[in-house]
Amino acid sequence: MTFSMKLNNKKFYQLLLCGAILLGPTACSDFLDEQDPSNLQPDTFYTIPDHAEAAIAATYAEMRFFGESAGIFSANWQMLEAPTGTATTETGQNSDLNNLYALIYDGNTGHISNWWNGLYRVIANANLAIEKIPGIQFPAASEAQKVRLLGEARFLRAWAYFYAVRLWGDVPLITKPQTASSEDFFPSRAPQEEVYKLIVDDLLAAEAAGFADFNANGRVSKMAVKAYLSKVYLTMAGFPLQKGQSHYKLAADKALEVINFAKANPSTVGLFPTYKELHDEKLKNRLEHLFQIQYNTVVAAFPLNDFFPNFKAVTYAGPSGTGSTVPTRSFYNSYETGDLRTKDQEGWFYTTYYTDGTGAKFDLGAPYVFKYFNIAALGGPGITPTRLNNLNVNQMRYADVLLMYAEAQAELGTITQQAYDALKAIRDRAQLKTPAIGAYTATSFKEAVWKERWHEFAYEGITWFDMVRLRKVFNEETKKFDDFVGHRNLNVSGGAPLLEKHLLFPLGIQEMRNNPNLTPQNPGYNP
């Protein structure tokens, strides 16, 4: 992929419309009559406020590469799950996915290039918006709208770079629109420290951009930005930057701002009382869902379908589904006895369901992921399925804020009552008893939080990044934490251990051929 971004094709125009559909109207009554979309160019497109709104909507829409296909029986999001050891597969047709499970992926693995291209498309769109929107004349009464749109562009750029720097380490740091004549059209990789500085600067700008405290329309909100700042600071405090105490303090403080808002506004931000509410499409962008990638079948249906059992009749479609990401039995068994998250059809898993979604109950023969099962769309007892799966994909939940706060506070050496309450809230919902605060040391409390993260955020694209920033992996047999290097994923990867090289993904071979300035390849991978 090159790093240029031109608005001269119908695909981008369609993205503008698709993004607008999911993010709400932009008051563009004359927008469709502006000009032939096949002739759109950046200099002629960014001329009125409606164009700015549409461009930001298109940038949000580009985030949906997350769920796009990565070959037969696979999608891009599986790259974040397969190497964790919490999942395995019931299919074997996709060699790239098999290599991810076996920890033998390389720069030819399709998912890796898809992630690179997808993230840099978001960055390219955001860079164009950041450069062009300031030159658009907004009515004086709408100046706050311009500030908000620029803040959204900077948040989305930070979102993309935060993924990129964690996946590949040093990456090209592109902050201006690129064309074939740009001096840095073949950019070199910037040190991670510089990438994180841009991420923090962008998020701080977004935090000050006048967003609503909370949004139910799919747009980023002030609380979502604060949550992301907490996660970025927490990541910077750990590996590889190892900023330590100063950044644990920043992470704790920013998470606490969200927690205090939730306490003052419990009907706006908080935990859902039950797990089923997390995959109820009527509750998208509500309460616990601080930020999600937006999906609607009008534009793009919910993409996490590879969690279905392999050809078992659990939906209106009958014996279908691919089973290319299913829980390992060892991970399922690692939950505490009585944990509601393991209860059939109540938490994250199901072991029985109803024939064709609405018929007789039958045993699935193994635990499968129920976390994203949309009963309204797919079928359940007494429910006529809509067949329209409009769930969103989680990116930041309030539960994450609670556990980030608890972990950061423990790293600071003090188990405050608030930190304890944050951990306890997660365990209370799981119907688990939490030892008294005095039973913990700072170290044992921190490890209790880590363990809770493994069990709370399984299959949400979070576990791999926890493994990398902590340099630790949950051992499902000992219930302790192994060092990352040398850990063996049970029941997956053929017993191959995690190696130092696995702390980063390789760069795509085709990208390195297109841009010789990307060398050297990440350590341990073929150039």
Automatic annotation (TrEMBL):
Keywords: Cell outer membrane, Membrane, Signal. GO terms for cellular component: cell outer membrane. Residues 1-29 form the signal peptide. Residues 30-234 form the SusD-like N-terminal domain. InterPro entries: SusD-like_N, SusD_RagB_dom, TPR-like_helical_dom_sf. Pfam families: SusD-like_3 (PF14322), SusD_RagB (PF07980). It comes from the Bacteria. It is found in: Cell outer membrane. Its main location: membrane. CDD domains: SusD. Residues 349-525 form the RagB/SusD domain. SUPFAM superfamilies: TPR-like. Belongs to the SusD family. This is RagB/SusD domain protein. It comes from Dyadobacter fermentans (strain ATCC 700827 / DSM 18053 / CIP 107007 / KCTC 52180 / NS114).
